[in-house]
Amino acid sequence: MSLIQSSTFTNTNVSLSPSLSSSSQKFPTFHPTLFIKPSFSPNPLSVSPRKSPFFTTPLFCKSPEAEEEASPPDDDWLQKLPEKSKPLYSHSLPCIEAWLKSLGFCQSKDDRAVWLIHKPDWHAQLSLDVTDLYIRYLRSGPGNLEKDVERRFSYALSREDIENAVLGGP
């Protein structure tokens, strides 16, 4: 944020209110229309219910060796995890991210809310949406899925229930 010196600030839209015209008051009152927030920026976390929260760009995971090198900070967050019977909404985001990494998920570089997992029998993308957690089992992975299978889980479910449902596969 840059500062503008008052001696160099000249704006014809600034007006003094009558109460400020006395010499005891030093600050002008600004016209409110000069400070309207632009409304062109939609909430980046919101997802239209008609659109899938997943994207079609392939995701790449780090090698297991690179994951091991990056895991010590995650151990701290894993120790801070609430009980597995607690709803997922009671978990902090760093705890959820550490938990997903411990399950074998890796985070997308393009979209930090999207995670990928490769299991011997299936591949899946997981998306942390504003209101729900989505898992999409990919037809392109191993197995014989005729189409992608998508499931949605509320953050009100326990971490244990979500883990069992997600790792149970399609």
From TrEMBL:
Pfam families given in the database record: DUF3143
Region annotation Disordered: where it falls in the sequence: 1-24
InterPro entries: DUF3143
Residue spans of biased composition, Low complexity class: 15-24
Residue stretches of biased makeup (Polar residues): 1-14
Full protein name: Uncharacterized protein LOC113867973
